[in-house]
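Q: Got a minute? One more chain.
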Amino acid sequence: MRGDFPSMEIKLPKIKGGVIRIAVIAVVVLILLIGSIYQISPEEIGAILRFGKFVRTTDPGLHFKLPLGIERLTKVPVQRQLKMEFGFRTTRPGVRTEYRTTPETVRESVMLTGDLNVVVMEWIVQYKIKDPYNYLFKIRDVESTFRYMNEAVVRKAVGDNAVDEVLTIGRARIANDAKEELQTLCDLYEIGIEVNQLIFQDVNPPDPVKPSFNEVNEALQEKERKINEAWAEYNQIIPKARGEAEQTIRAAEGYAAERINNAEGDANRFQAIYKEYARAPLVTRKRLYLEAIIDILPKISKKIIFDENQKNIIPLLNLGEEVKK
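A: Always. Here it is, folded:
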C-alpha cells in the first residue's frame, strides 16, 4: 500500500541572514515609532513623565516622546466641562434622563439646617481643570478629595441657614456662597480646579414629613397672598382718598378766594360810589336810579303791561333803551 503513493518532501525557502536582520530592525523601528508618536486633542493637554518625574506639558497636536516606557503620557482635559453629582447619579442621559439612588447618595443628600431641621438636597458641581500639574501631582485621588470638599462646604452652608431659606428664598444665595467657599478651598489645597457652577437641583424635606410641610407651605402662601391683596387694596384706596381730599381742599380754597375777592370788590365799589355821592348827592342818586332801572327792566322783558283800555299788549323788550333816552 505504501508504494502506491509517491513520497512528498517540503522544502523551505532559504532566507538570507541580512533579510532577517532588516526585518527585525524594521519591526523594532515600527514599535519605537508607535511608542514615540502621540496625538493631543484640542480640549486636552499632555503631561509627560520621564521615569515617573514630570518634565513638561504639550499642547494639542502631534508630538513625540521617548519610547519603551522612558516617557509616559497622561492626557488632561483642561477645556472640557466636567460635572460631579451629589444625592443622585445619572444612569442614562438623554431626552428622558434616568437617575438612580443608592445608600451612598442618600447619605450625601440628608443634611441638618441651622434651626435643627432635616432637608434632602441634591446638587451638581460643574468645574474645569485649570492647572494640570497641580491636578495630577499635588493631591492623591483628586476626584475623591474634591467630592469630600463639596459635601463639607454644602453641609456648612446649609447648617448656617434656616430651613425656610434653604427650601425657598435663600437657595440661590446659599449655592453662591458654597461655590465661593469651595473655590477658596481648591485654591488653598492647590488641586488645580476651577469651580464654574454649583447648582441645587432639588431640595425637599424628608418623605415622612413632606405632607405636613406642604400643608404649612400652602398656609404660608395663602397668608402671603392675602397680605399682598390687602396691600394692593390699600395702595388703591388710600391714594384715591388722598387725591379726593386734596381736590376738596383746593376747591374750598378757590371758593374762599373768590368770595373774598368779590367782597373786596363790592366794598371798593361801594366806597367809590359813596365818595361820588358825598360830592354830588342829587346827581349820584339819579344816576343810581337810572342804572338800577336799566339793569332790572330787561330781566322782566317777558312780562306784559296793558294800556288804559286793557286792549293792546305792549312788550317791554326795549324799555331799557327808552329809559336811557
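A: The radius of gyration is 53 Å.
Q: Perfect, thanks.
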